[in-house]
Amino acid sequence: MLMDIRTGSSTLSRFILAEQRHFPEATGDLTLILEQIAFAAKLIGREVNKAGIANIIGSVDSFNIHGEGQQKLDVFANSRMIQALDHLGLFCGMASEEEEHIIPIPDKYPKGKYLIVFDPLDGSSNIDVNVNIGTIFGIYKKINQHPGDANTADFLQKGRQLTCAGYIVYGSSTMFVYTTGRGVNGFTLDPTVGEFILSHRDIMLPDTGKIYSVNEGNFEKWTPEMQKYIVDLRSKMDKAYTARYIGSLVADFHRNLLKGGVFLYPEDKKNPKGKLRLLYEANPLAFITEQAGGRAVDGFNEILDIQPENIHQRVPLIIGSKNEVDMYMKYVGAGKNK
Ligand code: AHG
Ligand code: MN
Ligand code: MN
């Protein structure tokens, strides 16, 4: 339900503090973490908004672990996220789409019990053409509170162990959407005061939607079951589905979260394990989706139940309204079990 921004003058900080009171053991750590992520988001959003004139568009001559050319804004966003969080004394490690290895907390800073995984800038191919992009993050507690740095096992926890997940979408407005397991809430940046204001309280995904989001340019590479699923969606005369695909996961996801619908990036002949990454794209958005009453699968398993094997592993992702994801599982999940 969209809260009237004039009456619901709850800022992100005030909302988090109020939420924190529901957790007796809360120490305010998550409040500080989310406020710092929001600060990094404001810095990233500021660069995004002036990308065309700030010499921040275009690529740098480096490549990430995925062999993808890094955009200047990828590198900028990555460093802003790290700098906003590494000195808080609350983290014992970080993992980023833009860094091959786990990012340790410098020894000059105290270490804490949290670890964060993030995609600092999602939708990089859209930066130079002024199309919505975003930042995605997920926060875990380290396992068994062992002392010192996070280890690999801490980063390979299932998505169901997430303490908090969220994203920022830099679009016509900048929105911050997150969950700590008590529902999903959205905040819109009021640039005149530099505060994120509660604008979308208790976001719930409609059980069914009329939007499907997929890169139909991959049609010939899909499995026959996936091809049939899309053909049948298109021809459902009782319910005219419409295709919407921005090419930025966060932007496609955000629209479907508010309006209902399904986003799909399944495996195909070119990407046998799908294209999107489990740790810092699929899991955080799957946590948000389940909190909002939707479903997220890889074609067989719930995304949140998948045991990660490495921090950059890819996974097929079908995510959104329950009805359309259930339908996919009938077409594809069952099909594969033949
Ligand atoms: P990133 O920019 O973080 O690498 O993510 C890009 C992803 C995702 O944002 C989007 O859904 C997908 O790539 C688009 O892929 P295609 O261009 O192959 O459709
Ligand atoms: Mn991404
Ligand atoms: Mn990215």
CATH third-tier fold name of the largest domain: Fructose-1,6-Bisphosphatase, Chain A, domain 1
Structural class: alpha+beta
Number of discrete helical segments: 8
Low-pLDDT runs: 1-7
Could you tell me the radius of gyration in angstroms?
A: 19 Å
Number of domains: 2
Quickly describe the structure.
This protein has 338 residues and is α+β, with helices and mostly antiparallel strands.
Describe the structure.
- With 338 residues, this protein is an alpha+beta fold.
- The chain has two domains: 199 residues, Fructose-1,6-Bisphosphatase, Chain A, domain 1; 126 residues, D-Maltodextrin-Binding Protein, domain 2 (3-Layer(aba) Sandwich).
- Helices cover 30% and strands 22% of the residues.
- It has eight helices and 14 strands.
- It has a seven-stranded mixed sheet, sandwiched between helices. A five-stranded mixed sheet has the order 11-10-12-14-13, with helices on both faces. A two-stranded antiparallel sheet has the order 1-2.
- Helix 2 packs antiparallel against helix 3.
- The longest helix is centred in the N-terminal third of the chain and has 21 residues.
- It is globular.
- The termini are far apart.
- The N terminus is likely disordered.
- The structure holds 2,5-anhydro-1,6-di-O-phosphono-D-glucitol and manganese (II) ion (2 copies).
- The site of one manganese (II) ion has 4 residues, from strand 4.
- One manganese (II) ion (MN) binds next to strand 4.
Per-chain topology:
Layout: H1 12-20, H2 29-49, E1 59-63, E2 69-71, H3 72-85, E3 91-96, E4 114-122, E5 133-141, H4 152-155, E6 164-170, E7 174-179, E8 184-190, E9 195-200, E10 211-213, H5 224-235, E11 242-243, H6 249-259, E12 262-265, H7 278-291, E13 295-297, E14 317-320, H8 322-336
Parallel strand pairs: 3-4, 10-11, 10-12
Antiparallel strand pairs: 1-2, 4-5, 5-6, 6-7, 7-8, 8-9, 12-14, 13-14
Helix pairs in contact: 1-2, 2-3, 5-8
The structure holds 2,5-anhydro-1,6-di-O-phosphono-D-glucitol and manganese (II) ion (2 copies).
